[in-house]
Amino acid sequence: MQKQSVWIFSGTFDPFTVGHLDVVERAVKLCDKLVISVHASGDKRTVFSIDERIEMILLATTHCDNIEVISFQGLIADVFDQVSASAIVRGIRNGQDLYYESPMAEINHRLNQNLETVFLLCRNELTHVSSSNVRELGNLGGDLLKMVPDCNLEFIQTRFAELRQ
Fold this sequence. Notes:
Elements: E1 6-11, H1 18-27, E2 33-39, H2 50-60, E3 67-72, H3 76-82, E4 87-92, H4 95-111, E5 117-121, H5 131-140, H6 150-164
Parallel strand pairs: 1-2, 1-4, 2-3, 4-5
Helix pairs in contact: 5-6
C-alpha cells in the first residue's frame, strides 16, 4: 500500500488572495491531499477573523476536491505530524520571499526531521499580489486590482469600507 502524499499550505491568509489560490490549484495536482492550515495569529492583529478567513478559502476552493482547511496555533512542524503530512508547500514570488523562506525551511526541518518544504515559483502575472498589498489598498479605499478571488471580493470590500468609517 502506497503512502498518501499530504502537503500543508500554511499562512495567515488575511485575506486569501489569487496568489494563494494559484498555489492551491497547482499543489493539489502534485499531492493526494492538501491541508490548508490557517494560522490563528494570536500575536498579530488581523482584519478578518479565523472563521472568516477559513470561509473565504472554502468559497474560493470549492472546485478542489482534495483539500481540507484547518486552523492552527503554534509551530507548523507540530501540525505536520498531526495531519501525517509529507511536505509543506510555499509560494515564492521573488528573491525576498526566497530569502525569508529558505531559513524557515531549514528551521522546520530541524524541528521535524521528516519535514520537507516544496517551493512553487509564482506566476509572473501574480508577483505583485500579497495580502499586505490587499490590506493597504483596502484601507485606502482603492481598487483591489483583481488580487482576491471574485467570490470573496464583495465581502472583502465591505469589510474595508466598514473599517474606513
